[in-house]
Amino acid sequence: MPGLAGARVLVVxxxxxxxxxxxxxxxxxxxxxxGPMASAAEVLxxxxxxxxxxxxxxxxxxxxxxxxxAEALRAAGVPFVLVTGRGPAEPALGGAPRLAKPCDxxxxxxxxxxxxxxxx
Length: 120
What we know:
two-stranded antiparallel ribbon; 4 helices; alpha/beta; single chain; 22% strand; Rossmann fold; 5-stranded parallel beta sheet
């Protein structure tokens, strides 16, 4: 799909089935998928070696909350969207765009397009 083809998108998701669903959608959009990863610890190691173009970030991860991941993504200049079924986010996550689970392909594609090209 135009605008997303070739984008490197990190999937950080605590629920395996949802992570795989996001992975498949991103492949269909033409993205290169990093992950999926279910824990903040895994993501923080990856971010030492890789810089994704954007990230999908679940609030509840296998080893706790996503705040350390959000902070690392912001420090690296990587835009992200929260994809969560939880209520209001931690204050540290408050400014991030948000999609509610379950998220359909159209909403996910539009959110990523906005992350990758905010002027569009």
